Amino acid sequence: MKNKPTKTGYFSKGFFSKNSLTAFCFLIVPLAVYTIFVIYPILQAVWFSMFKWNGLGPMNNFIGVDNFFKIFSDPVFRIAIGNNFKIVFLSLFFQLPLALFIALIIARKFRGAVVYRAIFFLPYILSEVIAGVLWSFIYNPQYGIQNTALTDIIPFLADFPFLSSPSTVFYSIFFVMIWKYFGLHMVLYIAGLQNIPQEIEEAARLDGVNWWQMNRYIILPLLKPTIYLSVFFSIVGSFQTFDIVWAMGKGEPVHAAETMVTYMYKFGFQRFQLGYGSAVAIVIFIITLGVGMFYQKITASKDI
Amino acid sequence: MRIQIGEKRAVVTFKYFLITVFAILTLLPIILVVVGGFKTLAQLRLDLFGIPNPVMWSNYLDIIDPNSSMFFLNLLNSCLVMLMTVVLGLILSSLAGFALSRIQFKGKELVFTFFLIGLLFPPAVAILPLYIELKTLNLLNNYLGVVLPQVAFALPFQIMLTRSFFNHIPIELEESAYLDNCSPFGFLIHIVMPLSKPILTTVAMLAMVTSWNNYFLPLLVFNDEKLFTLPMGVMSFQGQYLNDWSLVLAFISLAMIPAIIFYLIAQKYIIDGLTGGAVKQ
Questions:
Q1: Which ipTM value was assigned to this complex?
Q2: Among partner residues B125, B209, B213, which is closest to A281 by beta-carbon distance?
Q3: What is the mean pLDDT of residues B261-269?
Q4: Which of B8, B47, B120, B228 is most exposed, with the fewest beta carbons within 10 Å of its own?
């Protein structure tokens, strides 16, 4: 405790007699902005969710938890929530391993690693809307990759409907998500790998471990904190998916690519069912929090 | 021994091959779009992978021309919103981070916890009431209607970063500042902030990227086309020129440029910002 950089300095020891007043002056604006634009609307969302309300006129149609029953009995919401969970699991099984694989290759002693890292991270920098429109073009049947000689090499490409069929739209969009986000996770892993002392690897190499043993028994366990974090980001981010889906067909056709947030947007801002939309928001929050806490718990208690 | 080296070389070559293929696949969609913007619509349709012939500068010129597209207006709006978000975020997170780090007062932990609660809430949860609130405050179709919520939602994480960095500013500096009759505010401005450039850069970079790419909030707040930011401009342009993909491609290519230039210049800071706070605990 003693050599820990201080938390109690001169300002803190009461040399300024009005410490509370000083603190108040520093904190009043940040607190106000935060309370007005974050806390207050969130509390209101809880309140709104118990009403049937179109956003105009008085809010006098109190219906308790009816909205929540309605949400879970709506087949479209079930598609949406299913898609969100699919994004979570598919990310865990495809996106993160790909990111980890590439990170393991280029993190150490790889000439040109900086260039490759820059290339793989580039899609993350683009806005989701730009990524979405860009891929709408690539998937476009008249102009995109379907209209090229590639269809001779990859036969199924010729009549793969991409964004126009309910059975393929979700996976087509998910592919774009991998493209856009694997670089972020790769960068996290590279940073984590670079924190692992070289000596450990050298010692292991002297002991004659092979590539697989090295990664499986030495690198991965040391990288665990970073992996936990990247998975956490991925889970929390997955439940917020909106922009990219919206830019690639607004969750259509027939709601096949709907996510919880696009569903909320449609009810809240297109049909002006603000009570119902708020209830959806609360459900999104509870699910995110629940899954997040569950995840924290298993990663904290178990040695995976 | 010889064989082993040979194997290693093969492995290395294979790694490079694999990584290069991945890199090409990653870049290909972007290249196709940028090059496609130089093609005529007819060529675009017939020859996706070909070199533009003739080279249609006019697509790009049409986008740049303020009379035929809103590109520059969109760009300006994105810049203004971003700038305000970053500046305000830096100020507020420095003030709060300082108070929560260096000043001793009753309820300090409580205030910090109150800020941390915000980390739990994704912006989408608050968006409907926020919309009503902005309407009441007359902030719809107003830059501040996007800026203030953006700042507010970024604050918890920013404060976490500034507070923990400020904790490590040596006590001796505070002592001498006090002996020189420096006020806490003066200490923050003249000593703490200049010493905290790394963390403030991180805070700024994260705020820039988030603000630049934000679509959900501006979509609700701005109805007036004159206020549209770049992502909104891209969506609305694509909606208008649904069948003229070469123009749309030129538009999104130009819309990508600022982010790419910024990325190439500030790559180190962006990546450090994203990973530094997260990994190096």
A1: 0.86
A2: B125
A3: 84
A4: B8
